[in-house]
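Predict structure. Input: Glycosyltransferase 2-like domain-containing protein, 313 residues.
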Amino acid sequence: MQPRVSVCIPLYQKVDYIGRTIDSVLAQTFTDFELVVVDNATTDGSADVLAGYDDPRLRVVRHAETVPQIANFNAAVAATRAPLVKVLNADDLIEPDALARQVAVMDAEPDVAVVSSRHHLVDDRDRIVARDRTLRTPDLLGRQDRASVVRRVVRHGGNPLGVPGNMLFRRSAFDLVGGFPTDEPFVLDVALAVRLTTVGDFYGLPETLSRFRLASGSMTSSARRRNLAAQRVFVRRLGRDHVDVVRRRDVVRGLARWPLTWLRHQVLMSASSDPDSRTHRLAARLLAPRGRRDPASDPSGDDRHTNRNPASS
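Output follows.
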């Protein structure tokens, strides 16, 4: 029988995290789903972790040879069978009610192509670095059309929409837009979300339903610079390609925000590399929503859960 939801995990060299990621999916309160892990020819022992699971909802597809990242993401979606799909990074987590909350939106809003939520940022030890990231403004909550989404992305200068694990989308919409764009490897999450708004609406949930990992050592300083540069190029091109909805003041506002985006990126990466540092505590204070204390200032940092781009936060 076809499941209602497919969660797919493109996997490459994540032996330290993939078990926690799978456990967070299998713990969902919504149970009508399949979990598809596409093993991109891993050699680090990740395959042994997968072999340790005996759950009929889990299906593993393995590439004989390693393929490029975007190809693996598209292959993961291609391997799914359900009309609703979530792509989850192999070191991220979702909250137990993530699928239940997002499926309810899709059932109630048939013209919505993608629903997203907020996320916490966590370090190697699952400690929260910053809470409730993305969808921080009212104009991205609830149902939004393409014009509203594109303008907000341009004004933000980065990714205010959410990382892959935040999103649940319709497989039919994904196929219509051609999947993940192969020319946007550093911004595949926001690029896909914008693409999907050309065939349906975007829906933003105020709840925090996933946890995005800032793994230490996962990105070199040069890769971080390339990542940020690619994001800036994407936002500029978005403004040019959508002149029908983007106003000059949106572009100016986005450019003015860029130094803040860069600073946030540096603080978060420093915090994730040393979870016991003063920088970790500083990041918690600087990035916590107003009026709320971030549990990252608590050494335990444990709330409910045991090639990253924090500029998307």
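Confidence is low (pLDDT under 50) at residues 290-313.
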